[in-house]
Specification:
single chain; alpha/beta; Peroxisomal Thiolase, Chain A, domain 1; 6-stranded mixed β-sheet; 10 helices; 29% helix; globular; binds oxa(dethia)-CoA
Amino acid sequence: MEGNAAVLCGLGAWVPPRVVSNKELTTALDTSDEWIRSRTGIEQRYLVDKGMATSDLAVEAGKRAIESAGSPPIGAVVLATTSPDRLCPGTAPEVATRLGLVDVPAFDIAAACGGFMYGLTVASSLVSTGLSGHILLIGAEAFSTMVNPQDRSTAVLFGDGAGAVVLRGGEPGEPGEIGPFDLGSDGGKADLLAVPAGGSRQRFVAATGQGLADARPPEYFLHMDGPEIFRNAVKRMTSSSRKVLDQIGWTPDEVDALAAHQANLRIVSAVGERLGIPQEQWLTNADRVGNTLTASIPILLAASAAKDLLRPSDRVVLTAFGAGLTWGSAAMTWPQITPRIDVIP
Ligand code: UT7
């Protein structure tokens, strides 16, 4: 009989085929490979082509996570995304249907880069209360569609992709158990990282041209105060991770892997150093994928497990931070699991 723990039992990821190097970005933007590498650690990213949407990425990652779990019946689908296919309805029901999951509950979670940790908390609660047998949680983003291609301060940072996990109910203490969790938010700093227009506050107005590639005025794209977001990211991911470490009773040198949101390798270093977790334990792939928002942590987990950097019984700390502001962390022990991932970034 299943107990009341939420256990990771499936893992998959998928990135779109088009690889864009830093050098390629320099053809259209006043930037350089040296600036992007030294400020962020990013060397390349995967981007969607015209016609490819978030649901397309989510379906590919979801399919792989379900296969990795041994194709169990899935009782619910949660999709964390910042770049839904449309404003209404949510994208998760379409993803569920395209995965052949008929009549299951399916809903989106909007918490920007913190979204995967919010989704993990909600999905874990659903399985540990017995409401859903197996639950599919996907983080998927075609966020490059929301970034101004002419704004060098944001256009070089983001990549597209999707990662997914399957959770099941299990026994407390078994490998793969997820928790404790910590979540937080600070809406007073919402303007530090935002797409100001297009919602009910700053409503849609007819585009006026202005020379943008798709004639959207700048307020329909992402705006960011990079240095302030950097400072808040380091502060919040560090304090949130400390809370889960205190709750579970692990010292930093007992942590086998730190899976921090991959916005910028300098942020990962700052968080790892402040936590006192040795550098060898920091998982990284921002150099290969850039900042993929809600997809960042599941892509990182799938890639790291495929490279054998995550092994059964490893003690793992997951932590993320993003627009909202939102942040969240969790501890988990790594299960015996084979990720499904074609390209390993
Ligand atoms: O997922 C959560 C969301 N996002 C983040 O966590 C991102 C957090 N922020 C960051 O990662 C960093 O703040 C950035 C990578 C965005 C920027 O790095 P920074 O070291 O904070 O640079 P900065 O914004 O202070 O800009 C330094 C200079 C500026 O020029 P001046 O004013 O010193 O002359 C910028 O105009 O770099 C310039 N700059 C660029 N130069 C070349 C900004 N973007 C670029 C660029 N290429 N792409």
